[in-house]
Design goal:
1 helix, 5-stranded mixed sheet, mainly beta, 12 strands, 36% strand, 5-stranded antiparallel sheet
């Protein structure tokens, strides 16, 4: 007996609905005549591991940033501490922030910064690329300035906004 895709779609819909409702009032068994052979893709079903559309993103920031600055003449030194507040490790981290107008990075430590002005991205060096849960890293830079010694207004770590402490 050959199964038609309409039977497969009905079987998938029944199983999906039963799973979504926790089995409440929906039969969870499918007649053998409607069950596809193992390994057969069911039309209309998302691949395994696909995010469900409409699922809310995780709430809260997965990171905090502490920023401090020391100024002298036409230079400033900025210290940044990044803390992973999430439950999993962050690998190949990239911290992005808008450097105030008139500031240009001249020297850095524990990270590579690019570009030297405007919206800057700091990325971990080879030996500083993983931030475990609860882990922190201290990075920083020296910059020239033309009078504006202000701090960046926001920070994102791998695209996730960080809380400022």
């Amino acid at each position: 007996m050959r199964l038609r895709s309409s039977h497969l779609g009905a079987a998938a819909a029944t199983l999906t609905l039963a799973t979504a409702l926790g089995g409440a009032g929906v039969p969870t068994t499918v007649p053998a005549s409607m069950t596809p052979p193992p390994g057969t893709a069911v039309p209309g079903s998302p691949p395994p591991g696909t995010a469900v559309p409409g699922s809310p993103p995780p709430s809260g920031a997965a990171c905090t940033v502490r920023y401090s600055v020391y100024t002298w003449d036409t230079f400033l030194t900025s210290s940044i501490t990044i803390t992973n507040t999430g439950a999993g490790a962050i690998t190949s981290w990239r911290l992005t922030f808008p450097l105030p107008a008139g500031q240009r990075i001249t020297t850095d430590w524990n990270a590579v910064y690019s570009p030297s002005s405007g919206t800057v991205t700091a990325r971990g060096l080879d030996d500083h690329v993983i931030l475990g849960p609860g882990g922190s890293i201290a990075i920083g830079f020296v910059a020239e300035h033309t009078g504006d010694t202000g701090s960046p207004s926001s920070f994102t770590l791998n695209g996730t906004p960080c809380s400022l402490t």
